[in-house]
Write a structure and sequence with these properties.
The complex is a heterodimer of chains A (about 250) and B (about 325).
Chain A (H helix, E strand, L loop, with lengths): L4 E10 L2 E11 L4 E5 L6 H9 L6 E6 L2 E2 L5 H6 L2 E3 L12 H11 L15 H13 L15 H14 L4 E5 L7 H12 L6 E5 L3 H4 L5 E6 L2 E7 H6 L1 H8 L2
Parallel strand pairs in A: 3-8, 3-9, 6-7, 7-8
Antiparallel strand pairs in A: 1-2, 1-4, 4-5, 9-10
Chain B lengths: L1 H14 L6 H27 L7 H17 L4 H23 L4 H21 L1 H4 L5 E2 L14 H24 L1 H11 L1 H6 L4 H27 L1 E2 L6 H14 L5 H15 L8 H15 L4 H12 L11
Antiparallel strand pairs in B: 1-2
Helix pairs in contact in B: 2-7, 2-10, 2-11, 2-12, 3-4, 3-10, 4-10, 8-10, 11-12
The chains are: A alpha/beta (about 250), B mainly alpha (about 325).
Chain lengths: ~250, ~325
């Protein structure tokens, strides 16, 4: 069976500082993988390398068996990879539904049409509203994004990623900055994501995200330190030392 | 509703010069030519978020090509116009490859440098451009046998060309491509993650902006029957940028209003006040201070605050 994502020997340095050092990951289709590590462990850098925002110095990245390390970020998205950002990166002046429509346009030929009015694309807006309803934001579809709460923005981020029906979903700290209440909503939302989507999630705080993960990778100074099931990683003395000991 | 008021405003703008004599009709033609030029620049500045200081290059080169082919090779207008449009658009396609290696200030500097290179070329390559003398002895075209030498005839011609261009620019801005383009302006990184080829979107827009500036260049050379290196220069590029920013970038009406203000100040007011550039500077300063996003969005907001536009607040969003 081909792996959903196979990273091998991935390296990236900023100047003389290696931020990703010979990282290898093997993620099964449908898996929920959690990547943890203290501040500066290189978690987001690893995501940026996988998503194509940064180019790797060396190594290979295979998405469902296909080499993608030489592809641009937008080409990787076309191959079925979606991501969310740690810092909310949305379109504040546009409505929630327009935000999702921009995501739908990303994989639609309509995006090259320079004649037909965008406002006439009712199908896209209907589809966007349906997706927003599924995550419980249907009633806010016509509201400008700047007028909704932080937690709702986080959910829009996820909705935009899901709208593209990805094969692999990269979530960069989806729970960061949320209240306990909002955290539960987003956790339920993530738990409901169907199994045909493989998920990799970065979290800084271990406690909040353990429930979702099946396998955990612990990064430290750009190296994979421990990898295994939840119990194995928590029990490992290196984890205790690097992470839980703080 | 908004569309209706836009067209009503435009119709008023188009009819007004007819109430005066030839002088005002010519002024109207000049405003429309400047407006088309500003609208083309606005595609970059307003919709793509790429501030260019070299947009006069496309207006000037198109005008020079048209004039040169007519004078030196004796081509007719039916040939020179498409040739000027095509060659200038090809030039935009080449310049875009260079300029779009950067965004922000880098983009601004590269476009300015490219513009200045052409300006220098027009000045120094005397055998082709006749340098500081410019190319004179040009004529206006005679579409379907109509003589455009009269002020009114040329104005009507300009109105037709301008309206058609405006229609296509409006379609472009409001299309799906336009929506995606605005997305690349606001959040390029997110757009890339969503599968949009941000570079290609910007590059295509750069070429389209070059094409419409070339169209403005043809009107420009037909109007003046003369072309001088000044048309390619930094002053001309900066003036167009001023029109876009003063009127309101990223809107359709903004560049038109901006063009009207600058051309009126330059031609009409300068007859009464010698230091009209000072007045232009003052007007620009006031706009930037009180309506930093431009006259058109600023007035719309004022309009709503007074309460005339109440009840349809979502209209302008």
């Amino acid at each position: 069976m081909t792996l959903a994502l196979e990273v091998s020997g991935l390296c990236k340095s900023f100047g003389g500082l290696p931020v990703t050092n010979q990282v290898s990951l093997a993620i099964e289709p449908g898996e929920r993988r959690l990547i943890i590590g203290p501040n500066g462990a290189g978690k987001t850098t690893l995501f940026n390398l996988i998503a194509g925002d940064l180019t790797a110095d060396s190594g290979s990245i295979k998405l469902f068996g296909q080499e993608i390390v030489h592809l641009r970020a937008d080409q990787r998205s076309q191959r079925g990879m979606s991501r969310t950002f740690q810092i909310i990166t949305l379109f504040p002046k546009d409505t929630l539904s327009h935000n999702v429509v921009l995501s739908l346009l990303g994989h639609s030929k309509a995006r090259w049409n320079a004649i037909k009015p965008q406002s006439a694309r009712h199908d896209l807006y209907e589809q966007a509203n349906k997706i927003l309803s599924q995550i419980g934001l249907g009633h806010l579809a016509d509201r400008p994004l700047s007028q909704v709460s932080y937690g709702e923005k986080r959910r829009v981020e996820i909705a935009m990623a899901l709208a593209q029906k990805p094969r692999l979903l990269l979530l960069d700290e989806p729970l960061a900055g949320l209240s306990m209440e909002e955290r539960k909503t987003v956790q339920t939302l993530l738990a409901d994501i169907p199994r045909d989507i493989t998920m990799i999630m970065i979290e800084h705080d271990m406690d909040t995200s353990l429930a979702l993960a099946e396998k955990i990778t612990l990064l430290h100074y750009g190296n994979v330190i421990v990898e295994g099931t939840r119990a194995e990683v928590v029990a490992n003395p290196r984890t205790q030392e690097i992470y839980l000991g703080h | 509703m908004k569309r209706l008021s836009f067209f009503a405003f435009l119709a008023c703008l188009l009819i007004t010069p007819l109430l005066g004599g030839d002088y005002y009709i010519n002024l109207g033609s000049q405003i429309l030519i400047a407006a088309l030029f500003a609208l083309s620049l606005n595609l970059l500045v307003g919709y793509a978020g790429l501030t260019s200081l070299g947009h006069a290059a496309y207006l000037g080169v198109s005008a020079y090509i048209s004039g040169w082919l007519f004078l030196r090779l004796g081509w007719g207008h039916a040939m020179t116009a498409p040739a000027a449009l095509i060659l200038t658009t090809v030039m935009a396609a080449v310049f875009g490859l260079i300029a779009l290696r950067a965004t922000g200030i880098g983009f601004l500097m590269i476009t300015m440098a490219l513009g200045q290179v052409l300006w220098g070329l027009a000045f120094r390559w005397v055998t082709v451009t006749d340098g500081d003398n410019g190319l004179s002895g040009l004529t206006r075209p005679m579409p379907f046998g109509f003589n455009l030498d009269g002020a009114l005839a040329f104005y009507i011609f300009t109105v037709i060309v301008f309206s058609l261009s405006l229609l296509f620019i409006a379609l472009f801005a409001n299309s799906s491509f336009g929506a995606v383009l605005r997305g690349t302006r606001d959040q390029p990184r997110r757009m890339v993650a969503l599968g949009h080829n941000v570079w290609l979107i910007r590059y295509l827009t750069f070429i389209v902006a070059g094409f419409w500036a070339a169209a403005a260049g043809l009107l420009y050379v037909y109007y003046h029957k003369f072309i001088h290196p000044h048309a390619l220069g930094l002053t001309n590029s900066a003036e167009a940028l001023l029109m876009v920013i003063a009127g309101g970038s990223g809107t359709l009406a903004g560049p038109i209003v901006g063009a009207a203000i600058v051309v009126l100040l330059k031609n009409y007011v300068s007859a009464f006040i010698e230091r009209w550039t000072m007045l232009l500077g003052f007007v620009f300063l006031m706009i930037v201070m009180f309506m930093p996003d431009g006259l058109v969005p600023g007035l719309q907001r004022l309009w709503r605050r007074i309460g005339i536009g109440q009840g349809k607040q979502g209209d302008t969003q």
